[in-house]
Amino acid sequence: MASEPGNEMEEEGVLNPAAVRGPDGELYLFPRIVAKGNYSRIGIAKVIFNEAGDPIGVKRLGVALEPQAEYEMRPGGGGCEDPRITYFEPLKEYVMTYTAFSANGPRIAIATSKDLFHWTRLGLADFADYKYIQFNNVNNKDACIFPKAMISPHGHPSMIMLHRPLFPGTSPEDIMHDPIDRRIRDHHECIWISYSHLHKKENRVEGQLEEFESNSPLALPQAPWEKIKIGAGTPPVLTKYGWLLIYHGVHATRTLSDYPHNLVYAAGIMILDINHPERVLYRSAHPIMSPETAGERSGQVANVIFPTGIDRRDDLGQPTRLDIYYGMADNCIGVATLKLPDELPKSWHGLFTT
Q1: CA-to-CA distance for 283 and 48, rounded, in angstroms?
Q2: What pLDDT, in 10s, does the model give residues 113-135?
Q3: Which residues, 6 or more positions from 121, have their beta carbon under 8 angstroms from its beta carbon?
Q4: What's the CA gap between 66 and 77, in Å, rounded?
Q5: Alpha carbons 166 and 163: distance in angstroms, whole number
Q6: Quick check: helix, strand or coil at residue 284?
Q7: What percent of the chain has pLDDT over 90?
Q8: Strand pairing partners for 263?
C-alpha cells in the first residue's frame, strides 16, 4: 500500500498498519495515513488476495480515527498514529492501542469496537507509578495487548500490555554519546510489560480505563543490531513455542552528525512463556528482516522496517504461516511471510519472503 495520488490525507505517506480479521473473516488494515505537516489519521482498508491467498493490494474504506480529543491535538495539528489491534476475548471486543500525539508529546491511547468500523475512545492508558517513575508523565509508544487474559504478578486475571516508554536521557543521541552498555536501571528505551486487572475492568464505566500496574521491564537491547533501542511490534500471536512477537530494534551506522539518517530499524523474533509472558524464552540473535529493498531503504525516513500487523493464515489451513505487515521507510506498507519451523533455529535470518 502506497500513498494514493491526489489524496491529501496521504500526502506524506501511509505506514505502520494494524492488521486484524473482522467478524466477516476478511482481513483489514488500519494504516497511519499522514497529511501535510505530519497530521496523522488512522485509516481503514480491506486487504485483497489473489487466488493463491497472497495479499496483493487494498481497498480503502475510510478513516477509523482522526485527531479530535484533547490528548490527540497539538498547535497546528495532531496525531493518531501507529495502531495495533487485538480481539480481546474476555471483553468480546476489538481493542486498539495507538499513539496519541498532543502538545504534551506521545502517549498511549485506547479505543474499542465490536465491528472494526465504529470506535469508542477510552482515553489515555493510565499507569501506576514504577518506583519513582511517574509513567503518565513520560512519553510512550508502541503499545499492543495480548488476546487472552492472564494472571498478573499479584494473582489477578488481567489485560496485559507491552509498551515502550521514552525516558529522558534515552534518545538515540543520548545513547550514541554513551559508549558503555546501559543497564536496566538507566531506563534504556526497551519493552515494558503492564497489567490491568479484569475484575475491575468487567465493571468498567464507559469512557474510563482501569490503571495498568505491576509495570516492569520485559526486554532490554542486547545484540548489536538493536543497540539503540527496541520496541514491541506486532501483537503477540500464540504458537506451539509460546507467544510470538515480532519486534523492532534500532542501531546506528554512521556518525552522530548524520542523525537521524544514520539509524537502521530492523525486525526480530521474541517468544514469551504461554502462561507467564514476563518470561522471555527466545530471541533471535540476528534480525530476521533488515532494510534491503528500495522501498525499505528510501522514503520519509531511510532504512526502516517497522512491523505492526500480523495475520496467522488459519483461513488457508496454514496455522504455521504468519503474514507480517510493516512500515517501509515511514512511507508505504509492505508484507512478508514467515513459515514457522519445526524447531527453533539459532538464527531466523532468511526465513522471511517479502
Answers
A1: 32
A2: 999 999 999 999 999 988 777 88
A3: 65, 69, 109, 110, 111, 207
A4: 11
A5: 10
A6: coil
A7: 76
A8: 252
144, 173 Cβ separation under 8 angstroms: no
CA 253, CA 284: separation in Å to the nearest integer? 20
The residue that leads in pLDDT, 209 or 285, is: 285
d(CA 17, CA 28): 9
Unique residue bearing C-alpha cell 472494526: 116
Q: How many CB atoms lie within 10 A of CB 148?
A: 17
The strand pairing partners of 324, in sequence order, are 310, 336
| pLDDT single digits (tens) 335-349 | 999 999 888 776 554
Encode pLDDT of 51-60 as tens digits. Answer: 999 999 999 9
Cell of 87: 480481539
Q: 20, 312 in Cβ contact below 8 A?
A: no
Max Cα–Cα distance, the chain, nearest Å: 55
Say which residue the cell 527453533 belongs to: 344
- The verdict on whether omega for the bond into residue 157 sits within 30 degrees of 0, i.e. cis, is no
Tell me the HSE value of 47 on the side-chain side, using a 13 A CA sphere. 29
Q: What is the DSSP letter of 236?
A: P
Grid coordinates of 314: 488459519
Coil, helix or strand for 185?
helix
Residue 76: C-alpha distances to residues 14, 79, 102, 121, 321 (Å): 20, 11, 10, 22, 43
Q: Which of 91, 146, 164, 163 is nearest to 275 (CA)?
A: 146
